[in-house]
Design goal:
The protein has about 120 residues and is mainly alpha-helical. The chain has a single domain, classed as Aspartate receptor, ligand-binding domain (Four Helix Bundle (Hemerythrin (Met), subunit A)). The chain is about 75% helix and about 0% strand. It is built from 7 helices and no strands. Helix 1 runs antiparallel to helix 7. The protein is elongated. The protein starts with a helix and ends with a helix.
Length: about 120
């Protein structure tokens, strides 16, 4: 698993949500987001690796537990945004993505946790 790529992919969620938000705000037809899957921390490539191979390789490392927790928190917050966007609650979704929001904090936390895991690996 390329942990730098994992960081990039998780950072891209904000751009994906922003694009979806713009479509909602302008009334464009958009495919609903799979909020249930987005909210799960074991469905993305990194999450599958984290709960599989990484657990057996790094499960005893302190950074591993922090990474699992931060990653799960990130996906919970991302799932909330997906639900708001699917419900066409643009203002609510925008607020949920704002700087210092739980999503923004979780996004930073998961990036730091992945770097920590990379350093301990």
């Amino acid at each position: 698993m390329d942990l730098d790529t994992a960081i990039q992919k998780h950072a891209q969620w904000k751009y994906k949500f922003t694009s979806h938000l713009h479509s909602v705000q302008t009334g464009e037809a958009v495919e609903p987001l799979d909020a249930g899957t987005i909210a799960k921390d074991n469905c993305c490539e990194f999450g599958k690796w984290l709960h599989g191979e990484a657990k057996s390789k790094y499960g005893v490392k302190p950074a591993y537990a922090r990474c699992v927790a931060a990653h799960a928190e990130f996906h919970v917050e991302a799932g909330k945004i997906a639900l708001a966007l699917n419900s066409k609650k643009a203002a609510e979704a925008e607020k949920m993505m704002a700087q210092h929001s739980p999503f923004s904090q979780a996004s930073k936390k998961v990036g730091v946790a992945i770097i920590e895991l990379k350093n301990q690996a």
